[in-house]
Amino acid sequence: EDQVTQSPEALRLQEGESSSLNCSYTVSGLRGLFWYRQDPGKGPEFLFTLYSAGEEKEKERLKATLTKKESFLHITAPKPEDSATYLCAVTLLGGYNKLIFGAGTRLAVHP
Amino acid sequence: KAGVTQTPRYLIKTRGQQVTLSCSPISGHRSVSWYQQTPGQGLQFLFEYFSETQRNKGNFPGRFSGRQFSNSRSEMNVSTLELGDSALYLCASSLRTGGYEQYFGPGTRLTVT
Questions:
Q1: Which of B13, B43, B46, B107 could staple B34 via S-S, CB 3.0–4.6 A?
Q2: Of the candidates A96, A101, A103, which has its C-beta nearest B55's C-beta?
Q3: A27 touches chain B (CB under 8 A)
Q4: pLDDT tens string for chain B (113 positions)?
Q5: Least CA distance to B103: which residue of chain A?
Q6: pLDDT tens digits, A43-63
């Protein structure tokens, strides 16, 4: 069964304390891996798409990397406004645009 | 460029009723997907429409249906509502299908009493 697992479930950081979120996947054939940010009561906000092992993408304090079994979302010197739930999802070969989501990591950044 | 819009934003329905939710994709986007989000199950795929054809369907009962119009706008319908259908229903649009980036709308919060 195709599965996406995120860890940790929740993470509390001090402002400026860098860390990484993990997304591991077990799928029949990976087409792409996606990272989203979701604030309470809102729809997920697109962050990154990764298609190949070794690929990296950056945006402000966030950097996403991909290997053959997992992806990391690195957060450098986070600020309180980075507090949100970060969701990882995959699409499969032949699966059109169907996203299979992990349960998410709830990040809280304290001043 | 306007984002994905969903209407209505909030709905309260009674068990046994039916409901129709609407989604307008980003201009030029031809793929629309629907997802259900609940605290217990997280985000689950309902179905995807591309060029007015359903391309993929998730593991939901036949009470959940959808359609897409020639202008790419989409609707989803839930008949014979159950308490367990209470959820945030999200619509996402993409330029094309085949595993490309998707942009989500704000969602419709459905409460079934």
A1: B46
A2: A96
A3: no
A4: 689 999 999 999 999 999 999 999 999 999 999 999 999 999 999 999 999 999 999 999 999 999 999 999 999 999 999 999 999 999 999 999 988 999 999 999 999 99
A5: A46
A6: 999 999 999 999 999 999 999
Inter-residue long-range contacts of B22-26, CB under 8 Å, 24+ positions, other chains counted: B22/B73, B22/B74, B22/B75, B23/B73, B23/B74, B23/B75, B23/B76, B23/B91, B23/B93, B23/B105, B24/B73, B25/B72, B25/B73, B25/B74, B25/B91, B25/B93, B26/B1, B26/B2, B26/B93, B26/B103
Residue count of chain B, please give it.
113
Which of chain A's residues have a Cβ under 8 Å away from the Cβ of B104? 36, 43-46
Q: Which two tokens stand for residue A70?
A: 């997992």
In chain A, residues 35-94 whose CB comes closer than 8 Å to chain B: 36, 41-46, 49, 87, 89, 91-93
